[in-house]
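ARCHIVE CARD
CATEGORY: sequence design from structure
SOURCE FIELD: tokenized fold
FIELD CONTENT:
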């Protein structure tokens, strides 16, 4: 890897990349300013890869470097599905250029992602409320903590996560390389932005009490004794709320070690840090 070439890749997008840091953005909405009506979901459609924001071939495939860390851009979004924490960004970067050199509009249904090709359409589901939206990924980030996607203000508002700043989500790519039978059977409504503002202040969201419980899975074993050893190791580090879930849905029993339920993102972040100390770096969010 030639560092000089790497810096050239980053130079054109460094400002926006730093913007998508994924830190808590409470109060970063329009505040007392008048805002437009919320748009509909982004409409998935085949698009050519952006000339900007996808890195370039430096011998190890397309990618870019931010804050000393190298990120590889996926060849395709086909099959991508991930669960983790979403954050959002708003007025601080409204009007700035995104990584693919479009103008960031916090009222559009867009998002930033570290490795999906630009542009890519994804469905984002709030694991707590089961609400889902479709956004167009046209930016890079977030680069803080274990965040997996950074949503625009409108997208976050529609997903009921503006007040908290973050949410536990599932992100699924809508990919046009798949056979027609694998594509979504319905298309979201055309996104619109009306010119007449309908509200004079940032709406206050009242989250309904959700029945969905969220757990962190930290291992799946064919032998119950192995699952018990993992549970015991967790208990030795003070993680007493781990349990073994027996899954016989596919025939032979599989013993899954889970922790929870997890109340919120703050608790999830703390749990991830503790698991990293144990060498467990691939926890998976489970809903029940």
């Amino acid at each position: 890897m030639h560092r000089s070439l790497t810096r050239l890749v980053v130079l054109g997008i460094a400002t926006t990349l730093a913007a998508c840091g994924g830190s808590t953005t409470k109060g970063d909405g329009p505040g007392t300013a008048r805002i437009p009506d919320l748009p509909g979901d982004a409409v998935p459609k085949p698009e050519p890869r952006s000339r900007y924001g996808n890195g370039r071939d430096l011998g190890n495939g397309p990618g870019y470097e931010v804050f000393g860390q190298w990120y590889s851009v996926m060849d395709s979004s086909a099959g991508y599905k991930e669960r983790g924490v979403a954050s959002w960004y708003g007025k601080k970067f409204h009007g700035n250029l995104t990584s693919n050199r479009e103008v960031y509009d916090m009222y559009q249904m867009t998002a930033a992602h570290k490795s999906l090709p630009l542009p890519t359409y994804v469905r984002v589901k709030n694991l707590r409320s089961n609400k889902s939206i479709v956004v167009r990924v046209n930016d890079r980030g977030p680069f803080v903590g274990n965040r997996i996607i950074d949503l625009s203000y409108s997208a976050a508002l529609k997903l009921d996560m503006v007040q908290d700043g973050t949410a536990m989500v599932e992100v699924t790519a809508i990919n046009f390389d798949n056979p027609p039978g694998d594509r979504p059977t319905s298309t979201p409504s055309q996104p619109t932005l009306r010119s007449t503002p309908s509200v004079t202040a940032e709406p206050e969201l009242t989250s309904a009490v959700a029945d969905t419980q969220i757990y962190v899975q930290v291992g799946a074993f064919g032998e119950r004794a192995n699952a018990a050893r993992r549970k015991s190791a967790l208990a030795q580090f003070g993680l007493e709320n781990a349990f073994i879930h027996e899954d016989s849905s596919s025939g032979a029993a599989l013993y899954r070690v889970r922790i929870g339920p997890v109340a919120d993102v703050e608790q999830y972040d703390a749990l991830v840090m503790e698991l990293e100390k144990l060498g467990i770096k691939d926890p998976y969010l489970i809903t029940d």
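CARD ANNOTATION: Residues 224-236 form the longest helix (13 residues). Confidence is low (pLDDT under 50) at residues 1-19, 178-209.
SHELF: design records, drawer C
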